[in-house]
Every structure is written in C-alpha cells, then in structure tokens.
Amino acid sequence: MHLIVDANIPAADACFGVFGRVTRVSGREITRAHLEDADALIVRSVTPVGEALLAGTPVRFVGTCTIGTDHVDRDYLAAHGIGFASAPGCNAEAVADYVLSSLLTHAEREGRPLLERRVGIVGAGNVGRRVQARLEGLGMTVLVCDPPRAEREGSAGFAGLDALVERCDVLCLHTPLVREGRHATRHLLGTNRIAGLQPGSAVLNAGRGDCVDGAALYRRLTMLGDIAALLDVWENEPGIDAALHAEAALATPHIAGYSLDGKLRGSLMIHHALAGHLGSRSALALDDICPPPALAELTLGRALPVEDALRLCARAVYDARRDHDALRRRAAEAGTAAGFDACRAGYPLRREFATLSVRLEGEARTLAGPLAAAGFTLAA
Ligand SMILES: NC(=O)c1ccc[n+]([C@@H]2O[C@H](COP(=O)([O-])OP(=O)(O)OC[C@H]3O[C@@H](n4cnc5c(N)ncnc54)[C@H](O)[C@@H]3O)[C@@H](O)[C@H]2O)c1
Ligand SMILES: O=C(O)[C@H](O)[C@H](O)COP(=O)(O)O
C-alpha cells in the first residue's frame, strides 16, 4: 500500500508506516501527480480534497487528522466509494488552553480582571463546550449560541447571536465553516454585528477565518479602535490580510489546536480509522507515541490571587504571546504568507494544561477549584 501523508503530521511512521510505504509531501503542495499510485491520502486542513485532486487516482481512503472538514468534498468521496475519516475533538483541549492563555493575557494587558467578564461562546461543540465548562467552573457568566444544538436539544441554555453581541464583553467563535444552508457560518460576524459589539469588548476567533468579515473588523479596529481582536484563524490563509494582522491585539497563525497531544490524537484517530477501513484492528495508544512532558509538576507554596495563579500555571505550559511574537517576527522577515506557514511548519513543542500536575501546599490549597476548572491536573 502506498500512502501520501502531509509532512506536518507527527508520528507518521508509527501511525501510517505500519500499513505500507509512506511518502511525505508538504500539505499545500500535494497534487494529483503525487497520487498516481497512491492508495490512501492522509492530510491536515491545508489540502483541498475533491475531484480536482482525486479524479483518476487509485486513492480509496482519505483521512484528515483534524477536527475541521471544510477542506474535504465529502459528497465527492461518498459518490466515488472512497472511505473517509476525520478526527473530531482531537485538539479540542489545546484550543481551550489557547483560549484561556489568550484571555488571561488580554485581561492583564487591559488591567481588567478576566473573571468579571461575561463571555459569549458561538458554536458549542467539542471545543466550545470545553471552553464553556472551564469558564463556568471559574465562576464566570457564559452565554452560548448554537442554533443547531438548540434545535435538537431545545432552546433552554442557548441565546441568539445578536443577544451575545449586545451583552458580552468577550465573544469566542468556535464554529465550523459551513458555506450554505440555514446555519451557514461564512461572515457570521459580519458588518452589522461587528458594528454592534460593545465598546471595550474583545472578539476571539479560533473557528475558521471565514466566519468573521475581516474587512469589517478592520474598519471597526481602525475607525473606532474601541474593541480588540484576538485572531488565530483568518480569511485567505496563509496569505492573510497584513493590515488586519497589524491591528490584532493577539495574532496567531492557526495554531490554537497545535499541542503535541492534539496533533498525535489526530494521527492516532486516523490510524485506527484506516485500520478499520482495511478490516483490521490496532492496539496503538497515545502513550505509545506521546512522550512525557518536560514540565510534569509545579508546586504552589502559598496563596496567590486566582488570576495570578491561573496565569502562572498557564504560562508554564503554554503562553499564546510566544506565538503572537513569532508571527509578527516571521511575517516581517519573510512576508505574511511565508511567515504564517513558517511558524506552523516549525511550531515548537507544546503540551496541554492537563499534562501539568500542580501541587498545592498550605494556603495555596484554596486554589484547587479554579486550577482544576482551568484544566490543570491536581497532584494528589
Ligand atoms: N484554530 C484551530 O486550531 C482549530 C482547532 C480545532 C478546530 N477548529 C475549528 O473549530 C471548529 C469547531 O470545532 P469543534 O471541535 O467544536 O467542532 P464541533 O463540530 O464539535 O462543534 C461545532 C459546533 O458549532 C455549532 N454550529 C454550527 N453552525 C453554527 C452556527 N451557525 N452558529 C453557531 N453554532 C453553530 C454546531 O452545532 C456544533 O455544536 C472546527 O470545525 C474547526 O473548523 C479550529
Ligand atoms: O480543524 C482542526 O483540527 C484545526 O483547525 C487544525 O489544528 C488545523 O491545523 P492544520 O490542519 O492546518 O495543520
């Protein structure tokens, strides 16, 4: 069996070498020529997969080691009997870490406590639910907008997007890109809603870039300058709008989900899906391919204000400012598109909050609730 595998997929040999010969190709450069004798194609989100890529090739299985599937023409695959799998939830914990790290940094810069803010979550699936649970666990007020879930589950606990825009200090977008239909998300946050955002509020987008109208956001940022944009995803990646990039308070190159744990879970989920597609089973587990964290334990020996403790522990594991600074630097050196992809390809090792075990001694034990809610493990 011959497998074409995106070069940005970790543990490719352990996860896919067991099925046959693996050829690694940069995700944005995979063409039909690479697939002439390929049986399986394993991608991440940067490879558009559909008729243009697959027609006339022998590919019988496509796996994407990502949560998002908007780059895959699933109707085409189904119509041509090509097996497909994605990796729902694989990096949801990493995105929740990114959200907390970003919001804690933004609150510190503004000198306004995060815990007093009202947060709106748009799209409460694997990612949004985790963000909601963490923030509510910290005692914050959270409003949730998810019309497809509200239709299925009943409207209790859900609000409309306009209510979130009117009432929230922070709006977090965790929606997939849905191009058509009643719940389409392209420019979900468009001109009118961006104009309606509360002065002093912040928009964080870690869903898909197209869910926010970047030109309208840029206008509000430059003409009124009274809101903040925390952007991990962008329209036209990797050739993102350099002017919007310059205005964003936190600008990262689509790395919210880039923990090692999250990427490896994605690889592993597609490994198991491919094994199933081939009629076999595998016992490969995350512990077989994921190393222990460099920082496994941290001790807090006295009480700190809750937000200071959260920031200290968050930054010990993942500090979103690092990724913001790297994108600014790389974009200045290499140009926006090349800098964006260079940051992603050379992404430094990052682990998830849960890999840090926090030992609390004496008065610091009062921090147990907030640290656990934020996603850290408490040492016994
Ligand atoms: N920045 C990153 O690195 C990163 C990482 C992971 C996922 N993502 C993106 O985030 C998206 C969400 O991830 P997930 O794991 O939570 O997916 P999910 O499918 O579990 O949840 C998506 C949620 O959005 C809701 N939704 C759909 N249309 C909506 C609309 N019009 N308004 C409000 N809510 C709507 C769905 O009902 C669902 O509950 C993914 O599709 C992916 O595009 C980005
Ligand atoms: O959909 C996802 O899982 C994320 O957006 C993913 O982290 C994107 O990473 P990429 O596929 O671009 O490497």
UniProtKB/TrEMBL annotation:
Localization in the cell: Cytoplasm
GO molecular function (one): 4-phosphoerythronate dehydrogenase activity
Residues annotated to bind NAD(+): 146, 175, 232, 257
Pfam families in the record: 2-Hacid_dh (PF00389), 2-Hacid_dh_C (PF02826), DUF3410 (PF11890)
Domain (D-isomer specific 2-hydroxyacid dehydrogenase NAD-binding) ranges: 106-256
Source superkingdom: Bacteria
EC number(s) from the headed UniProt entry: 1.1.1.290
Domain Erythronate-4-phosphate dehydrogenase dimerisation per the UniProt entry, residue ranges: 291-363
Location of the active site: 208, 237, 254 (proton donor)
Keyword set, alphabetical order: Cytoplasm, NAD, Oxidoreductase, Pyridoxine biosynthesis
Pathway as given in its UniProt record: Cofactor biosynthesis; pyridoxine 5'-phosphate biosynthesis; pyridoxine 5'-phosphate from D-erythrose 4-phosphate: step 2/5
Domain D-isomer specific 2-hydroxyacid dehydrogenase catalytic: 27-257
Matches recorded under HAMAP family: PdxB (MF_01825)
Function: Catalyzes the oxidation of erythronate-4-phosphate to 3-hydroxy-2-oxo-4-phosphonooxybutanoate.
UniProt name for this protein: Erythronate-4-phosphate dehydrogenase
